[in-house]
Amino acid sequence: MHRVLQGRLRAATAIALLRANARFWPTVLPDVRRELRRWDRRAAAIPDPALRAQAVAKLRDERFNAEVAATLATLVPSARRRVAVEAIVALQVMYDYLDGLTEQPDADPLGGARELHRAFVDAFTLVGPPAEYYRRGADGSTKHDGGYLAALVEACRCGLRALPGAPAVAPAAYGVVTRCGEAQARTHAVALLGARQLRAWAQAQPEARVLQWQEVAAGAAASVLAAHALIALAGDPA
């Protein structure tokens, strides 16, 4: 009986992979590449040279991240697949861009990273205008990205709003990206503040009852994947 069940599981897995590939290559990947070209153009137009360099480099070097994340869109009905891809790609491009920005030296690494990651959270509020995410410098000046980060927020929102299950998944996704942003901020702050603050935060999470704190921190920082899955789930009206 055990062998029979294993055989059925292997067969079901093979069929699922075949179906996913049949959807990914002709319908999902072309849309992903179109969206990445769109963000290439927006990144190249960022007026601040440091922000522009960061955005362009992330898109050049980490395009595969968006392609992999968008495989989840193969689970979305064909009529809604394109908008799901738009939301997933925008979220992944934002995640990678913020990851690069929060790796930069900052006198207040937690404060600066939290301000930037408000964009990540705003992508799942569904209403309200995007905020100003770059903190003012000591001289009162602020960085200008030409609306790049706000456009990523709005693209994710628009794609998600077009999916029938958005109201159901948005609260869960909001919680995921809030925790993801905090884990990212604390992980990047280790260089200046040490690991104690990251360990204390991770140990306070519910998963610490069964996982080591390093596992909790790593899983939370990478949980953008869960947000992508929730976007895909929003394509199901049930």
Task: Provide structural commentary.
This protein is mainly α and 238 residues long. It contains ten helices and no strands. The two termini are 34 Å apart. 40% of the residues are buried.
Binned, the helix content reads over 70%
Q: In total, how many beta strands?
A: 0
Strand content: under 5%
| N-to-C CA distance | 34 Å
Order of helices and strands: HHHHHHHHHH
**Major sheet summary line:** none
Q: Which structural class fits the helix and strand makeup?
A: mainly alpha
Mean pLDDT: 94
Summary tags:
single chain; mainly alpha
Give the SSE layout.
Layout: H1 2-44, H2 49-61, H3 63-69, H4 78-102, H5 109-122, H6 148-161, H7 166-193, H8 196-203, H9 213-221, H10 224-233
Helix pairs in contact: 1-2, 1-4, 2-4, 3-4, 4-5, 4-6, 4-10, 5-7, 7-8, 7-9, 7-10, 8-9
Brief sketch in words of this structure:
This protein has 238 residues and is mainly α.
